[in-house]
Write a structure and sequence with these properties.
With about 170 residues, this protein is an alpha+beta fold. The protein contains two helices and ten strands. It folds into two domains: about 80 residues, Roll (SH3 type barrels), CATH 2.30.30.140; about 60 residues, SH3 type barrels (Roll). The chain has a five-stranded antiparallel β-sheet with strand order 4-3-2-1-5, with no helix packed on it.
Amino acid sequence: MTSKATRSGIWVLALGLLLTACKRHYRVGEYVLVEWEEGSPHLYPAYIIERVGESRYRVHFDGYDARYDEEVSVDRIKGIVEGPVVAPPPPARVARAARRAAGKPDVGAALAVNPYKPGDRVRVRWRGSVYSAIVLEVVAKDRVRVHYEGHESAWDETVTLDRIVTRP
């Protein structure tokens, strides 16, 4: 016969296992919202690029250089992106780092012209493959939002010009 304390301990253990088993497991390629830093009020759209462990993922923040890719815990992932998302402006430390890397402030960025316009057909590199896409909008001088032909709009993304291979 088991004691009351032992039965309580078993229930607590079972409840703990149940709660940890209910954590959502995300898949590589899913478009998710991620806290930039633990406890940050801002959520940024990102793609899961690798599952690192049971509850850790490597993500690529949409619209940012690969140098900002980061390993995050499942607690910082706040759900799947559904519909269009406008990311908040970058944290001050990211903006400062970008200006420092360029060696000067980004004066005249507004004067630069993006070579693409909405409706242009392009081919975009994604994970070692090339896909046909249509430019939906010009986001910045060096980025466009594209829709991959033959895929649902959930895969639409903002890409840097260096990922565009050629115009078909």
